[in-house]
């Protein structure tokens, strides 16, 4: 039985299954192109993958800021683990960093699915 990270489209973000993720890893892409992406003044959004790349670029930036004051590997590891455990606002909630980029969830169930999807990336091994 194939396990899935998600399926379908929620909040204008296409969900990937594990089999698709093996072919295209957006997290690795976000990490690889982080330095170049932060220098873009304008970013042409062509697909939901671009939206996810923007979100992941912000998350990487937040993670790096958390690591700034960490002097040891243990302290840095703890800071990143704690970041992954923090409450993540979903589109439409106060505190979501990109209002208007993603459509708001149409139901509590959809909000839960998009939350679990964002949490999956924040806790990606």
Defining traits:
6 helices, disordered N terminus, mainly alpha, about 55% helix, two-stranded antiparallel ribbon, Arp2/3 complex 21 kDa subunit ARPC3, about 120 residues
User: Mind telling me the CATH superfamily name?
Assistant: Actin-related protein 2/3 complex subunit 3
CATH topology: Arp2/3 complex 21 kDa subunit ARPC3
Cα-based radius of gyration, to the nearest Å: 15 Å
* Highest CATH level, the class: Mainly Alpha
Spell the H/E element sequence: EEHHHHHH
Question: Any idea how many domains?
Answer: 1
Give the strand line-up of the largest sheet.
1-2
Question: Which class of secondary structure composition applies to the elements?
Answer: mainly alpha
Low-pLDDT parts are: 1-7
Strand % is under 5%
Please outline the major beta sheet: 2 strands, antiparallel
Mean pLDDT: 79
- How many angstroms does the end-to-end distance come to? 22 Å
> What proportion of the residues is helical, as a percent range?
40-55%
Shape label: globular
Number of helices: 6
Tally the beta strands: 2
Question: Please, could you describe this protein's structure?
Answer:
Mean pLDDT is 79; it is low at 1-7. The longest helix has 20 residues, at 48-67. This protein is mostly helical. The chain has a single domain, classed as Actin-related protein 2/3 complex subunit 3 (Arp2/3 complex 21 kDa subunit ARPC3). The chain is built from 6 helices and 2 strands, in the order E-E-H-H-H-H-H-H. Strand 1 and strand 2 form a beta hairpin.
């Amino acid at each position: 039985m194939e396990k899935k990270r998600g399926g379908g489209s929620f909040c204008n973000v296409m969900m990937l299954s594990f089999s698709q993720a093996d072919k295209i890893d957006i997290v690795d892409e976000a990490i690889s192109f982080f330095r170049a992406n932060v220098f873009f003044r304008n970013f042409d959004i062509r697909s939901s993958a671009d939206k996810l790349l923007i979100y992941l670029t912000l998350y990487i930036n937040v993670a790096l800021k958390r690591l700034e004051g960490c002097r040891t590997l243990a302290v840095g590891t703890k800071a990143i683990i704690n970041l992954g455990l923090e409450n993540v606002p979903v589109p439409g909630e106060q505190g979501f960093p990109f209002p208007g980029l993603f459509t708001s969830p149409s139901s509590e169930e959809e909000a839960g699915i998009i939350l679990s999807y964002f949490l999956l990336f924040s806790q990606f091994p």
